[in-house]
Amino acid sequence: MNSMVNDSDKTLAYLAGEWVDTAESLEVINPYNGERVARVALCGPGEIDRALDAAVASLEETRRLEPWQRARALAHVRDQLIARREEFARVLSQENGKTLAESRLELDRSAATFDIAVGEATRIYGEAYDLGINPMGAGRRAMVRHYPVGVVAGVAPFNFPMNLAIHKIAPAMAAGCPMVLKPASKTPVTALMLAGIIQESGWPLKAFSVLPCDRVAGQMLVEDERIQLLTFTGSPEVGWKMKQQAGRKKVVLELGGNAGLIVDREVQDWEWLIKRAVMGAFYQCGQVCISVQRIFLHQEIVGEFRARFRQAAEALRPGDPLDEATTLGPMIDRANRERLQNWITEAMDQGARLVTGNQVPALGQGNGLTATILEEVDASCRVVAEEAFGPVVVLTPVESMEEAFARVNASRFGLQCGIFTRDFSTVMRAFDALEVGGVIHDDVPSLRVDSMPYGGVKDSGLGREGVKYAMRDMLEERVLVYRK
Prior knowledge:
Oligomer: single chain
Number of helices: 15
Radius of gyration: 23 Å
CATH class of the largest domain: Alpha Beta
Distance between the termini: 56 Å
Shape: globular
Largest sheet: 7 strands, mixed
């Protein structure tokens, strides 16, 4: 079949250059209105086995592609994402629930990530040097080159079904690695649309597959020895279990967080601070790994920050993600909304104060939750200690920046932290003290530029994304020692 949709309007899986149907189906549901977005072919072990065989067979071709050939394929995908931005954005909002503005931003970042990969595909450098640093190496030189590690398996999450999948796909293509991708079961449609673009890019057909499947079938991507690298984005509980089961293959984990934002006593630009804090806390209804969840405020500014932040949060407009006026979409499903409300209730039962929010708008299917702000929350409550992954933020006063650093570090997570301060020495102290993968000055921890190294420490993950940095795990060094 040449089309991703068959005669019965079923979206097909993409297996090594072919669109394939399966006996089982996956219903993709719009989280706002409960309507069916698509019926997608659900793959099983048989399809995964065929895809892995094809990927292994394609490695000899992908590893021999010239840099310009890899760059040309990547550029084709970039250009098509730009050209089809609105089409992708509408489907993304339907399957994921993010607003159109948020979906367009994700498409812009997706195209930018491929653009970055175009350059990195031509910058896989080696080195040569003299080994005569001691008598053993006398008369010899060394040449070091990088080669594709082999087949890559990617597991993508629902919250950024395009860009976080692309942060696995684009580096793999730039490095010359075949890939089999498992998209999130709730949001597979845009990944399959992307497969159609890659199919036409000149990239070897057998070297890429997108297979919607359940967790049982997807376990093959964890355990199968034909795979040399597993890259996973999702929950810590699932990620660390995968690492235990992965055997000898490399594993890259981009897991969760409960990101902190620190605000010092002297605020230079209140408008910028509040604008960014609201975006960081409630963008995509808070369903972001680096969403602002904990805000640590110097005690001298708590009152003014609270008033301004509350007013801006209450101005967000819940509604249909396809309505241009909507600024707060729904959570992915009712189970997650109810989970988060249980956590909020737990905190309030232990003495927390609700500043605003915690209301279910009378819209759609009841998966929405208004922007929620809490104060005086015990640090043991799950809304502080765990990853909320929803539109809730906790305000906490501190007496000093050192106290703020300690509170940020008092977490099992360590993904990113933002800090607003006019004192650059405080920025450098934060950089040294904070146990996180990234410190963002004069902005929220939710900032991610797609070229930078991105990842965390502790339960937030292992390894780094960002095209150049992801490629380091997808390439392996080989040394040639030769006589002068």
